[in-house]
Specification:
The protein is of the alpha+beta class. The chain contains nine helices and 13 strands. A six-stranded mixed sheet has the order 7-6-3-4-5-11, with helices on one face. Strands 8-9-2-1-10 form a five-stranded antiparallel sheet, sandwiched between helices. A two-stranded antiparallel sheet has the order 12-13.
Length: 297
């Protein structure tokens, strides 16, 4: 595989004529490091790669001073897809699943009653507390892109198009969204939507951003706004693991002790944390020091 000219980048752009904003994400080494943490079946890896690309895409539009996470969960063969992207451009992700897996592996593999949650945890400069916003919708779609489009339609009433792809060890995504309150060209959204339908996953993953936009929407007066790097990094810490143990309750946390020691390993990066009996006990005499993430630390 040839090195990609836009590897591990997030690029924001504006279609001035149509009043549409967009984001393109390419993940190479970042995705390689995430995928290497667990030996995922190919279809699970592809869905996780798409989820990671989506999490990065959404930070291109959301104003956050913390992190944004995407979680799809259910009780079917595919139980969890989780990806998190921080304001600093660091990404991590994980998947949980059971065999046998259906083929093709679509969001319907999460089973009945499954949910899609997008969570933003933000701590503005100078603020003392972290604010947390979470949007939840039911998960009924034939692809992850369709699921995310439905989320924005239901929770934010913003026309949105996404294409996500994992090709030859690289994952990528592109997102178009109508600017809130922007009229633009009366037919701009329909015109760009028709052009968007001509884009394929292979093309998205392999073409540089400038070439991609020129081929797709060069008549819409595209304007590149900024480009920033992305990289794998885990946001786990001893404090956050301690908060996770606290959410379990004193009895369950104590039951994790073996010979007076509890060893906790982060599923995202493999880092290990050692808690002795007195340290477990002290967790229940102080307030949480960092926001948890539904036990995915």
């Amino acid at each position: 595989m040839k090195p990609h000219p836009d590897r591990d980048t997030l690029t924001r752009f504006l279609l001035e004529r149509s009043g549409i904003r967009g984001v393109v994400v390419h993940l190479d080494q970042t995705w390689t490091e995430i995928a290497a943490r667990t030996d995922y079946p190919p279809e699970v890896a592809a869905r996780l790669g798409e989820t990671c690309a989506a999490a990065a895409l959404f930070t291109g539009h959301a104003k956050i001073d913390g992190r944004l996470s995407v979680q799809l969960r259910g009780t079917g063969a595919l139980r969890t897809l989780f990806a998190e992207c921080t304001a600093a451009g660091t990404l991590r992700g994980i998947a949980h699943f059971d065999h046998p897996l259906p083929s093709p592996l679509t969001p319907r593999a999460f089973g009945a009653g499954s949910l899609l949650a997008i969570t933003i945890e933000s701590t503005p400069p100078g603020a003392q507390e972290t604010t947390r916003y979470q949007g939840l919708v039911g998960l009924e779609a034939d692809s992850l892109a369709e699921a995310f489009e439905a989320y924005f339609d239901q929770s934010e009433q913003l026309p949105t198009r996404l294409l996500l792809a994992t090709v030859e060890g690289r994952t990528a995504g592109v997102m178009l969204q109508k600017l809130p309150g922007a009229e633009g060209d009366m037919d701009g959204w329909n015109r760009c939507n028709a052009l968007f339908e001509t884009l394929g996953g292979q093309e998205l993953a392999q073409l540089p951003v400038e070439t991609l936009l020129h081929r797709l929407i060069h008549e819409e007066r595209e304007k590149l706004l900024d480009r920033r790097p992305l990289a794998f990094a885990c946001s786990c810490s001893r404090e956050r693991v301690g908060d996770m143990l606290r959410t379990l309750g004193a009895d369950e946390a104590q039951s994790a002790l073996v010979d007076g020691v509890a060893l906790v390993h982060c599923d995202f990066c493999g880092e290990g944390y050692r808690f002795e009996a007195e340290q477990i006990a002290s967790l229940f005499s102080v307030s949480p020091t960092a926001p948890g993430s539904d036990r995915l630390q």
